[in-house]
């Protein structure tokens, strides 16, 4: 029997500490701490993460209170609640999702815009 690449954290489970894994984790429970992976993290609708996330792909259907860094993409579904900053090369936000924080979306190979001047301010400066 080969081991499954998908791991599950059931809704009746609460973990405090750092979680690391390689492939995929679907979280239906509560994590109080950081999650570190190069793989895929899915926060299910009943899932809650109180801590920072650093992952390849992050899919949020539940609640995250912390900063999210995704090296591939981040997808906030309509039930998602993210309170924290987000950094990813690709960001998908469904209608109904709650996102309170700052985002930095920079496609791979690009550099972020550092000096942004609003159009009205730039026009007055001339």
Q: Mind explaining what this structure looks like?
A:
This protein has one helix and 16 strands. The chain has one domain (6-125). Strands 1, 3, 4, 6, 7, 9, 11, 13, 14 and 16 form a ten-stranded parallel β-sheet that branches. A six-stranded parallel β-sheet has the order 2-5-8-10-12-15, with no helix packed on it. Residues 121-126 have low confidence and may be disordered. With 126 residues, it is mainly beta. The longest helix is centred in the last third of the chain and has 7 residues, at 119-125. 23% of the residues are buried.
Task: Please summarize what this structure is.
The protein is mainly β. The chain has one domain (6-125).
Radius of gyration: 17 Å
Structural class: mainly beta
Major beta sheet summary:
10 strands, parallel
Instruction: Name the assembly state.
Output: single chain
Average pLDDT rating: 88
Overall structural domain count: 1
Q: What's the shape?
A: globular
- Low-pLDDT residue intervals, each spanning 5 or more residues: 121-126
- DSSP strand content: over 45%
Number of strands: 16
Helix content: under 10%
Q: Between the first and last Cα atoms, what is the distance in angstroms?
A: 70 Å
Order of helices and strands: EEEEEEEEEEEEEEEEH
Count of helical stretches: 1
């Amino acid at each position: 029997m080969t081991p499954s690449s998908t791991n599950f954290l059931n809704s009746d489970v609460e973990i405090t500490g750092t979680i690391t894994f390689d492939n995929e984790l679907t979280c239906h429970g509560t994590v109080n701490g950081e999650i570190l992976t190069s793989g895929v993290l899915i926060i299910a609708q009943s899932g809650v993460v109180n801590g920072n996330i650093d992952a390849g792909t992050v899919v949020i259907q539940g609640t995250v209170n912390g900063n999210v860094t995704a090296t591939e993409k981040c997808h906030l579904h309509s039930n998602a609640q993210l309170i924290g900053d987000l950094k990813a090369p690709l960001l998908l936000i469904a209608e109904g999702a709650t996102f309170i924080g700052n985002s930095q979306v920079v496609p791979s190979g690009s550099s972020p815009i550092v000096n942004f001047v609003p159009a009205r301010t730039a026009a007055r400066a001339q």
